[in-house]
Amino acid sequence: MFSVLSQIRKRYEYMTPVEQRIADFMLDNPAKVINMPVKDIARNSDTSDAAIVRFSKRIGLAGIKELKVELAKELHTLEKENISRVIDLEHDTHKDIFDKVFKNTIQALYNTEKIVDRDTMKKAAQLFAKSDNTFIFGLGDSANIGNELEQKLHRVNINAFFTSDKYLCMTRLSNATKNDVLFLITLSGKTKEVVEVVKLAKKLGVKTIILTQNHASIAKRNADIAIEITEEETNIQYMNMTSRIAQLVICDVLFFYICRELGSSAYETIIKTYDVTH
């Protein structure tokens, strides 16, 4: 189930005044929106039919028809389950915790599937496949994802170099060529280290790809290609659990996209590596 209401709340502060009027009406009247014609939604939010369609796409959906379908599913699920997504370690039973962790994770993956741009991922994979060197930078939990991606890329003979050290990454960028690529993995895209690295890459003309859940971050605005994952409304996010899994899945998909770009040579290398390790 794609959470329409969650996506609206998370993006609200970055919306234009017109988008905020639409958001306000939908957040205040979600049940009414489901059955309202586009013209009525536009009239009640003092906007236009075209603005409603653009708004739907702004939160990761194809149009207002899909928004209504997803919103109806969301309201039905909320009414049926009536369960908070927040984990309360003092009062939740073991079953409650188990159910919430799984449901929140599934929700994060479903939302990410909806908002991620496949064409953008394809372009990113093409850059990876054509690069002489790929520099991967990630901090905290994102570092684990970056380190794993480095190992996968080595299996298909891509020169990948991961680090969570800002200075080492900046040194590598200083010696980079026009055929090298920087891949940033970050949740907020706002940390000082990430911003400094992406700005240096831009200054040096190094192509930059960023994987982030913050669609309005400084890092994203300075990147050449941005892959966005969802940001969830749950206290699990403070442990980065749902975001980490979403990052991992996107990197797995990206890896297979890269393999497809490389063609048969990549498949043969993977098979040989598997035979050696097993």
From TrEMBL:
- Where in this chain does the record put each HTH rpiR-type domain? 2-78
Q: Can you tell which superkingdom this protein's organism belongs to?
A: Bacteria
Task: Give the transmembrane ranges.
Answer: none
Which UniProt keyword terms apply here?
Answer: DNA-binding, Transcription, Transcription regulation
Q: Where is the SIS domain?
A: 124-264
Keyword field contains DNA-binding: yes
- A Pfam entry, by short name: HTH_6
What biological processes does GO assign it?
A: carbohydrate derivative metabolic process
Fetch the InterPro entries from UniProt.
Homeodomain-like_sf, HTH_RpiR, RpiR-like, RpiR-like_SIS, SIS_dom, SIS_dom_sf, WH-like_DNA-bd_sf
This chain's protein is named SIS domain-containing protein
Task: Name the source organism.
Answer: Salinicoccus hispanicus
